[in-house]
Protein: ABC transporter permease
Organism: Pseudonocardia zijingensis
Amino acid sequence: MILTTKRIGRQRRLAAGLVITAVVALIAIVGPWLAPYGETEIVGKPFTMEGGWLGTDYLGQDVWSRVLAGGGPILVTAVAATAFGMVLGIVIGVVAAYAGGWLDEAIMRLNDVALAFPQILLALLVLTAVDQPAAWMIVLLVGVSHAPRVARVARGVALGIVSRDYVHSAEALGESRLRVLAAEVLPNMSAPLLAEAGLRLTYSIGMVAGIGFLGFAANPGAADWGQMINENRLALLVQPWGVLAPVLVIGVFTVGTNLMADGIAQLSGRGE
């Protein structure tokens, strides 16, 4: 399935998801240049409506400026983690489906063991063992936590493809297994994997924000949507915007990615 402009236009759910996601991503990219104050600049007393139109946070920093500055790191981390998890999971799932037999059974039973671990628990177990987590470490942990779920989806899709005649024809012509996978199997898995990628991105945003909320952000001094919720939660009744603003932005982005995933799934289900 190729996502053309015409097909996207016919699928309102997908179009709406793309617009919402693009708007939030654009805000995260250009936000630091639009912010009226620096992300660590003190503009007034803590938890007041001084400074910008959303007031100040627990240190007296402008909430609106920190919201604009805090999106880039969390979105980059979430996208990178999703990409890593998708690649790793697809490799595991496709190899298992194509190999078949005892190797397929062994890979998927190990995959089931990995599925038994809660995603956030694996990340916290590692992050609590280091003094200050780096961004690449969070990407790695979130991506690895996605891989077992992606692998199961990829294997299920690949099982319906590896037995097709065109795959057997390629093998009969002497094509290498790697070339058969790259040229015959993977291109025909694009639609369900795109839908799964949208779903994984949704979970990545939640996990990265949750890690920041629990105090494991890669840069504790910088603006971070998840970290902002934790920093300002004690004064929620006094100055709610320090918490509500990042929550709303994360929620809107999550809605957008979910709509994209649902729209792609509906298009693939109709064979468009």
Summary: Residues 97 and 156 are 8 Å apart (CA to CA). The chain has a mean pLDDT of 87. The longest helix spans residues 241-270.
